[in-house]
Prior knowledge:
The protein is α/β, with parallel strands linked by helices. The strands form three sheets. Strands 1, 2, 3, 4, 5, 6, 18, 19 and 20 form a nine-stranded mixed sheet that branches. Strands 7, 10, 11, 12, 13, 14, 15, 16 and 17 form a nine-stranded parallel sheet that branches. It has a two-stranded antiparallel ribbon with strand order 8-9. α6 packs parallel to α7.
Amino acid sequence: MPGTFDSMRMKLSGLAASLLLISGFVSAQESVLISNARLVIGDGSVIESGSLLIEDGAISAVGDGAINAPNSVRVIDGSGKTVIPALIDGHAHLGYEAAGVWGGHNYTPETLRENLEQYAWYGFAAAFSAGSDPDIMAQEFQRTQGEAYPDAARLLFAAGMGPDGQGPNDTFLTEVVEVEERTGQTILRGLTGPEQAAMQAREVADRGISFIKIWVDDRGGSQAKLAPELYRPLIAESERLGVKVFVHHQFPEDMPDLLEAGAAGFLHGRFGDAYTDEIAQQTAAAGAFVIPNLGLGELRREAIGDDPFLRAVMPAEAANALAGPDSGRQASVTRDAGREASLSASLARLLDAGVDIVLGTDAGPLPGHPFGYSGHRELEIYVRLGMTPMQALVAATSAAARHLDLDDLGLLAPGNSASLVILSANPLEDIRNTRSIERVFLAGREIDREAIAARLSASP
C-alpha cells in the first residue's frame, strides 16, 4: 500500500557508500536519491511527486515528498519524469537469436549475455526462458551473471517436458535437439508413463530448477498432445516439491483439467469464444496466471525493422530484413474487426474474474520477434484491447514477479532490488511512453545503455 512507503527508511547492511561516479554511471554501492518524480509503485498505486533512495544496490526508502538521505548521496532530479519498476518478460526462449541470425548454433553464454543485455536496454530486470535451455549451462550462467554480466537482465528458466521427443514447434524442435547434441546437456525431458513423469519432477527438483514448462499441444496434428495421465502425476509431484509447472496449451477446453491438476500458469492465452466465464473464474480461483502472448502473431506481419526503437540495438542488415516491402511485412497491419472484438471480450472476462495477467512475449523460438522490443509492443496490444495502462504495467512488474518468485523485483518498495526505469514521459497517459527510457538501474547500478546499443547494433 502506498501509505506504507511514505517517509519510510530502512538501512541495509554493507558499506556506507560514497564512491565516485565512474564514466557517468552509478556503481552498485553509491547512494542515489531520485527526487520530485512520479513513482508508479507496481501494485496499481502511484505517488505523484515522491522520492526514492537507493543504497547498497537496494531501495532503502520511498516517500511522498522529501526523505532523509546521506550527505554523500547523488541526487537525480525527477521533475516531470516517471519511475517504474524494471519490467519482466514471463515467456521467452533465449539463446537462439544473435544479431538477427537464428538457430541452435547460436546458443552460448555469450549469446545469453547479448539477449539479456538487450532486455536490460529496454528496461527489463528479468526474462523467463521457457523450456528450451541446456540446464547445466543455464544454471552456471545464473550462478555467475551478477558478477560477470552486471548489465544483463536476470535469467530465469524452466525444464521443458512433453511427449517423448516432442513439445516445441517443429522448426524449433530441430534447433533444440541440435543444442542438446552439441552441449551434451538435457533440455527436453520426454514423459513416457505416470511413474516416470513423477520421477522427472523429482530429478528437476534435485537439480535445483524451480520451474517446469510442459507442452499440451498437438501442433496441428504433427505431434501427440501430452495426456492427463502423464501431466497429472508430474504436476502433483512438482507441487509437493515446490516446483511450479507452467503450461503451453492450444485449446481453452484443456484448461479446466490442467487447473484441477495444479498448473500454476498458462504461457498462451488462447483467447476466443471458447475461453468462457467459467474457465476464467476457475483460473482466478486456482490463483493461476495467464500470459496473453498476442504480439507474436501480430508483429511478424508488421515492418518492425523501420522502428527506430528497434534499430537502435539491431545491426542495420538485420533490421532491414524486418523492414519495408521486400520483407513481406506491412507498414500498417490491417486487423480483423471480429477478431479484435473477440480478443477484447476474452481479456475482459479474465479481468472481470480477477485473473492475474502477466506480460510475456514468446520471443526467441522463431526469428524476427526481438527481445525487449516485443515486450513494449505487447503492452500496447493489452491497452488497445481494453486494459488500462496501469493494469498493463502491473502485468509487467508485480504480477510477473509474484508468479515467477522474484521476491525482490516488481515493486518500488523498501528492501527490494533497486531495479527500475526512469522515463521522460508518463506511461499512465499513453502506454507507448514506456519507450521514453532515460535511465535503467539494475540492482542499484545504472547500466550503460549507449555502450549496450553500440555492441548490439555492430555488424557481426
